[in-house]
Sequence to fold (797 residues):
Amino acid sequence: MNTLSQSMRMQTIFDIRAHRLLIIVGSLIGLGFAGYAASRGMPMWVWAACIIAGVMPAYAHHMYDVYVKFGWWSALLTGLVAAQSFHGVEHLVQWVQYHILRWPFFKASGIISAANAEWVHFVWNWTVLVIMVFLVWGGMRNRYAWLMLAWTTAHTAEHTYLMIRYLDALNQLATLGAWGTSAQGLPGFFGRDGWLATSDATRNTFVCRLPGLTTAVRLDVHFWWNVGETVLLLLATHTTLKQKSNHTA
Amino acid sequence: MQRPVSAIILCTSLLLSACSGVQSVSEPPVAATTTLQQRPLSAQTEPCQSTFVRHQTDHYTQSSAVGSYVYTSNGSGLAIGDLNDDGLPDIALGNLAGTVSVLINQGNWQFITIPTTLDDVRALAIVDTNGDGTRELVATRRLSRPVIGTFAENTLSFVPMPDVYTAFYTMGWHDLNDDGLLDVVLATYDTEQLQQQGLIFTQRGGGGVFVYYRTTDGRYRGERLNNGADALAVAFPDINGDGVADIMVGNDFNRPDGVWVRDKQHWQAVEPFQQTTENTMGLDVADVDNDGVAEIFATDMKPYQRDVATMAQWLPAMARLTRPLSADDPQYPENTLQRWDGHGWRNVAYDLEIDASGWSWSGKFGDIDNDSWSDLYVVNGMIAKDMLDYLPDNELKESNMLFQNQQGQRFTPVNWGLNDTGSGRSMSMADMDGDGDLDVVVNPLDGYAQLYENRNCTNNRVLVSLVDQTSPNGDAIGATVTLERADQVLARQVKTISGYLSGDVNTVHFGVAKDQSIRKLTVTWPDGSVSTHADLPVNAHIEIHKTE
Fold:
């Protein structure tokens, strides 16, 4: 298997200067579509998706370059780090929208999560987990990598729990004939009104009112999930690349 | 750890005597001259058990002839009080499509039902409005002005309340200008009035929150505090700790609650809470943690169970009822318990696990098990053909919930026979059978009113009634009674109404744990004078008369 065959540097992941023209052209096209979407009154997440789609070819090209130069493992790592960083920014934006700009809950949904927070995060977290498994399997082995794997497994488990509840709730609503009702945003395992705070197993014990763990609102819980995930991934990547660099030297 | 009891007592008289009428805390309280009578409580009904025994009444509260829709789904009130002055608390049960019933207490859980012709009733209170020494039954009504009923020869005769012409939803009685006469705060439910009357409601002046001061010639002088309300509850907490009762009005439909503090003879609107309920259904002021300082409890709508099936029943209704709030909006759709932390009010309902009790209406504190800690009982449920059209029988069926106070640290739900699913609306607690413990009366929607007999015998108890012979406010409405034990101070207020549309008896109740005794009882009378009483027995009904 092609693993850390050559030494890649951390900054390579984000260095897409070689594709300036593609970035400019893609951005302009994306902006054009975004402007059209805005003029048709489409929601903000559609505009953002247009711009992201415009930039995507440049970054895909960059990943291909990494693949050619360093192999598939490095390309996968490049893609994951960039995407998780963007996802972290998404949650940061959400956090700023809610806590700094004082937007309402329903409006503070980041850049693209407004599409459907449950599906977006469910798919995204499973993707991260699968890629992490591949990366570890392919040689990313240090304490941060193991921590990241554990963290993302727990995070994905929570989103799986949320997805099960979401689908179950939609099913129950359909049974009641309440088709148009949204079931997004139900509490998960952690946080205020979550399973840990309200289950029969934990009610009336100290566990159900642990500060933060069972008192934070869902937006904050997932902000911190992603802060942890992004930081651990960057540390794991940095350590791995350093290990490889030393090994090559 | 021993608490500094004297400091707590001082705090109590400074901070909490919500009806003392003292304008300045720097003035030392005047000692009241009192006489004291005591009588032993009647023997408790055997067998002792930890559950309540239910007695069904023949009073059926009907929402409307065509079933329950939004607004009629709010149900009707009840009141407990001694209407015929025989020493036994009677019960008035409200109705909408049907008529009000009055149950005259004969003792031993026997009642004579007095029918009335009064219908379309919201709040009820049994209160001596005119200071003549006998209590009247006051009712607010859905679409017409409030009425006052006088009881004589087993008949109630109602007359419109003088000088009040608006259809008010809820009320609260208190001496708000220190003249010894009971005044009343009345507030409207504008959303319903607009639906019923349309623009006529606005053209007639609209609604809001009003203080009606009773004058010496038996009339009322109104003062409007604001121009709009969706009020379901009124309470008189001491918001700013100046020893004077302030006004709090709980509003439905995302309308922020109204709070006014008294600045000399003027009312000033304030926003003292960082977090409040969004759809305030009921209010109660009670000392929950036995520190002598009252907390403020408000009920709202939040499911206790968080399983998917329960949430699916709630989601469509909540989507219709609640609007998304901004991050700096203090309103949240859940119960709140405001506690004074020395710097400000802080909501601790979530910390104490009473933030969620269901689609809650009347919620009140009372020491159900006489262990000295006030427990919380909340009645729940909703029936509405237009809003809950997706549910069987258009009903969100929920059980009423009793939360046992775990020494002020948290509340644990318990089932002591009070978890009925009969869509409760109004509810009050009082000792109905003279054994000194708190019995419960519930007036549900589209169901028969229930009386719950408390058979708990495990602890001691004390009842305290106040008689102010020096004032037209003879029941000392607004007085604070504090019971001092070795390590705690238990405070109770004499109220006319609390929770949701639910009139209270003027006798206050203290549970006293088996191993405890009473060190001292302190009464802060409505005029600010204070009387203290020592060497008091337990298991007694103590009547304190203020003579000068």
Remarks:
- The first strand of chain B starts at residue 34 and ends at 40.
- Chain B is about 5% helix and 40% strand.
